[in-house]
Write the structure tokens for this entry.
Amino acid sequence: MITIIWASGHKSPLASVRQWSEKNGHERNDCPALDCQRTSSMISPKPGGWPYGFDGLASAVLDSRGIVLGWTETAADLTGLTAEDVCGRPVQELLADLPGDADTATEIPAFGQVRLRRRSGEIIPVTFRATRVTGSSDLVVVAAPTQNVSDQQQGVELLRAFSSQDRIAIALHDRDLVIVHSNNVSGVFGCPSVPPRGRLRDVLMDGDAEETEAFLRQVLDTGAPLVRRDQPVRWQHDQARQRAMSLSAFRLEDERGRPTGVVALYIDTTDQWRARRDLDLARKTAERVGGSLDVVRTAQDLADVMAPAFGDFAAVDLAEAVFDGDEPAKRLGGGDLCLRNAAMAPAAEGWPAGIERGDPVPPFLDHPVLHSFQHGETVILSRDEYISVIGDPQLVEFLLPKGCHSVMVAPLHARGLTLGDVSVWRVGSSVPFTEDEADLMAQIASRGALAIDNARRYTREHRAAVALQRRLLPPATIDAPAGETAGVYLPAGGGAEIGGDWFDAIALPSLRLALVAGDVVGHGMPASATMGRLRAAIQTLADLELEPDELLTRIADLVQRLATEAPPADQDTVGATCLYAVYDPVTQCCTLASAGHPPPVLVRPDGTVEVVEVSPGPPLAIGGMPYETTTIDLEPGSVLALYTDGLIEREGDDIGQGLRHLMDTLAATCRPEHPLDETGAALLANLADQAPRDDAALLLARTRAVPAKDTAQWQIPADPAAVSEARAWATRQLARWGLDDLLFTTELIVSELVTNGIRYGRPPAELRLIRHDVLVCEVTDSSPTQPRLRRAATTDEGGRGLFLVAQLAMRWGCRYSPGGKTIWAEQLIEYPH
């Protein structure tokens, strides 16, 4: 704390003694008590008074021999001895010891330190000064405790040190806040001089002066000190340059406690203010820029950091290729730089008509400043310099904000690529940019460029993952004899994360339809790649017409093999769940099996909604355990919904609540007259608004049935003669259906299939014909023997039956069931147009 002492205007001790000696004419042997106790204003006592009950300066008058002639009351307070006790006695008797040869000295030194003995015997170190009375040999000695004198000297030295500082101004304001005394106001405020009895408005801008005087007035009125209040200010002589000042103030009071003025300390804190501003900008850049992996959002975050904290307006321009995740082309010189505006701040108003979000940046002339920018330098341009770079004053008015006088442009350079630029403008009374600020701009632009480049690279990878995901998924809608399907896929995080969820609808022989929904662990390209491998494997096994439980067993083996092929750190993350269902439109039965997958939801034609009870097996990553099948009947017009867990997992809700929400939505939107794709879009609309944590896939299938008039069955006797009967029966049935053009080939196919069933199969056997857009011939028997297509040798008597079927039919195959096998062949029916 700094204490400043102002003289009260009382007479000094020496003047009082001189007045007493000259006017009163007292003899030296007289020893009146000198009225000097009120002459002390040279030393300010500590709170609570001086030690030893002393308050003031002790004064005494001595003759040339050191005999005490006069004694003040303050001297009596200091020593405990009255004037009667000491007058007429040598002053040496009051000393505890004499310095050097003082006892033999004939003269009293002008100043020094001695130790006085009080009446109580206590020793007091004091500092004295002796002054000779004009025209007399008498001396006036003024003394005070040495401790108090040292404190005063240290205070004076401290005040002198503060007063000599270049960046600290100490000013005394009177009650009208006029500067009546100051040490370095001109130096700290940076002005040439402060007028005599000037005010702050002579130094600071009016607004800054009024604000500062308001705080000084508050200190003067309340007495509460003000400590280190920081505020930006501008000087009258240099209005374009903004500085910062720290203000501390306390009130001065007279002896009665009445306010007499305010002492203020003004400290130039411009460097600290700039350092804090730079740190704040760096911190905001680190906190706000880079939190998004969207290129435009990242650019907007960078612009929001720059304005209004660093400039009045800020804009970010990016190369066209960056928006798509590609690398920008390297360009030097003027012309069309292929830049487009990506972000503006503030976004509300004040921008010229030529700058709008998404607009291309106009071409630039080939200018040295442009070359400096393209080589990675941050450039500062005045309005005139900007006009010279553009080359067209009208275009400048079209591009510069109104009142702009200074612009700074920094390249967004990262990993050897110039992605674009960030521009900051200052308008109106804002101070122009300085070279010191260019370094800060370059640092912020460098951090922003890295964040934008990260977003660009993510955009490229995300686009590739999306393309891969879409290529791996089937068409959104499928129209098959067994039913129509519609599938939708929603990435996690509103499109930010592509995962391994998938759906599939596979047309099987005999007009059957396989429905698949699966979920691969993880996100990104690895999950998409794994999903593609599983989908391809399921399609291959589906063509083999395996039962759902056996198919899932084979897929589980594949997933375990994929886990062993993965790197050791990723082996535990390879896994998947799957639901596989096969619907037969002839029997109107659906057989399902689940590998740790959520159960499907069934919407019946009457609008009732239920969860299909499926016995869930282990996920596909866990082998060694069997899967169970469930068979349900589906009326024509029923809708079966297969989905992944991302559709029913909601923030703050359990899976049960999500499943109930799915059922309620299906009940409300799944109507016979509504297309399935609209129903799927409605189901995912709410989920998309919530940016789900996991990706979601949904497959809706509305079933159909093959009419009874389009199927025919015939039991095959266990007799070789039944072959001719089967041909005749098939010929009559095709004649009823009007398929005369298929009679010859169908007779041959039926003959070979029935012969094969009688020769190699076991009864009972059955022949079935199914008519739709293809003619299906099926022979079912109770033998699980696998038929094989082989090329018969020239001398072989058999082995040509299946080869003949393969030549006549569009395709053929064999499927197994718990009761045996079915060999089938399909022929295309060409209906007249």
In short: DSSP finds 20 helices and 34 strands in the chain. The longest helix spans residues 435-472. Residues 1-30, 32-54, 101-105, 793-797 have pLDDT under 50 and may be disordered.
